[in-house]
Design a protein that fits this description.
432 residues; alpha/beta; 10% strand; single chain; two-stranded antiparallel sheet
Length: 432
């Protein structure tokens, strides 16, 4: 109930006239204030007139007035500037730490809002607001999608900033870790990010002219050069082929030289993975990409068109991996280059967020603008989330659209956080 009181106060869902405090004084709400999602009063800098006197201050909202005392506000100086206490039930008077009585207003949630909200919570169909989507204006949809797109990029910016901090402030290392994470293509994302933290790029950089040594460090730090990491049925073949033993010997030398410790190979997942997504193949591709020196943050910043960007990310594998997906398991020879759809996903999930995050960090607005431009040039992703929204009647044309709708599902629908959603707002205010 308190959530709905917050909602009604924020969106001014109250009678235009007839509002009174519990002691009979006339109330006029000029400005409900700014919603505070942190500690302290619920709304800051509200403006209300009480019996003609203008008060500027904070507003606190509770289901019952007595919750003021249950939450300890009478002992907290942050609540001394509360000018109005909005409640569902006024079961007692309340005072601040300074001993002042706070004016109280009983607010009733409109029955239609209560009924619509209950319907959203109990509806099994997904998303629960599906029936109102076709009636929304293009302006409403466009504004909300634009906000969601920015919100998603800002979330990714936080994660990238944390990677840069872990790397001692190196944004190049943060780019490598972000690229590695997205080479996991979802299932192995966490494992690839952990793997990236095990790669000492400054040390590996001293051997960047030798692809074999790079691959040895990359595979070794992934824990994949341990015999136990090879399925038992392939172990004898892997040892007889010689490539595994050569890589392992080279890694042991470099591990001793640089004091390297590999990650646990059990972190890698293979179940229901297509062979081209096996960690061995993705790591071999990353080794070749690192060796080529094409993919880096500095190179990304110089990319101004999609063709250059896609070319920067394209890579292949060494000859051994053209005929293998894991050590000892031979396959038909293929170049195992990245598919166009894989490159698009890397652009969406690595390049665009890196441009946006680095643009924010370096205060280069043109990089942030370029990130949005790239999203509008790319085709929308194809997955079950996007298909769901298309079935509801939403047009999904670009990667910007699909990123916005992924954000909508994960951060709002999955959490049933309809009160913060603009589509939820339209649903709640609809007449029944």
């Amino acid at each position: 109930m308190e959530q709905l009181l917050h909602y009604c106060w924020k969106h001014k869902m109250w009678p235009m006239e007839g509002l009174q405090t519990t002691d009979g004084r006339r109330v006029e709400v000029i400005d409900p204030g700014l919603h505070n999602r942190n500690s302290g009063p619920d709304f800051f800098n509200a403006k209300v007139k009480i019996d003609g006197t203008l008060w500027v201050g904070n507003v606190e909202i509770h289901d019952r007035a007595s919750d003021w005392y249950q939450h300890g506000h009478q002992k907290d100086a942050h609540y001394n500037n509360v000018v109005l206490h909005v409640v569902g039930v006024a079961d007692r008077d309340v005072q601040t730490l300074e001993g002042n009585f706070v004016p109280q207003l009983c607010l009733t949630v409109p029955p239609s809002v209560t009924a619509n909200y209950a319907e959203l919570l109990r509806t099994d169909s997904y998303p629960p607001c599906y029936r109102i989507i076709p009636s929304l204006t293009r302006l409403t949809i466009h504004a909300w999608m634009a906000a969601l797109q920015t919100e998603r990029l800002e979330q990714k910016t936080v994660a990238i900033g944390e990677r840069a901090a872990q790397a001692g402030g190196s944004w190049e290392d943060a780019f490598f870790a972000t690229l590695a994470r997205n080479y996991g293509f979802g299932i192995n994302g966490d494992a690839f990010e952990e793997w990236a933290r095990h790669i000492p790029l400054q040390a590996v950089g001293k051997h960047r002219d030798d692809l074999f040594q790079i691959e040895a460090v990359f595979m070794g730090q992934a824990g994949l050069l341990e015999t136990a990491a090879i399925p038992e049925r392939y172990q004898e073949t892997a040892l007889n082929e010689g490539y595994f033993a050569r890589l392992r010997n080279e890694y042991q030398y470099l591990a001793h030289k640089f004091s390297l410790t590999p990650m646990d190979a059990n972190r890698w997942r293979f179940l229901r993975l297509r062979p081209q997504n096996f960690p061995h193949i993705r790591i071999a591709q990353l080794a070749s990409l690192y060796y080529s020196r094409r993919a880096s943050l500095s190179a990304l910043v110089e990319c101004r068109d999609m063709v250059t960007l896609a070319d920067m990310l394209q890579t292949q594998v060494t000859p051994y991996w053209e005929t293998h997906y894991t050590f000892g398991s031979e396959s038909i020879r293929t170049t195992k280059r990245l598919s166009p759809s894989s490159i698009n996903l890397l652009i969406i999930n690595t390049c665009v967020p890196m441009l946006f995050a680095y643009g924010r960090h370096s205060m280069r607005e043109e990089l942030c603008d370029r990130a949005f431009d790239f999203l509008e040039q790319l085709q929308a992703e194809r997955n079950h989330i996007i298909r769901m929204w298309q079935e509801c009647g939403l047009e999904v044309a670009t990667a910007g659209d699909s990123q916005a709708l992924i954000q909508l599902k994960r951060e709002y629908c999955d959490r049933r956080d309809c009160l913060r959603c603009r589509i939820g707002y339209e649903y709640l205010r609809a007449s029944r």
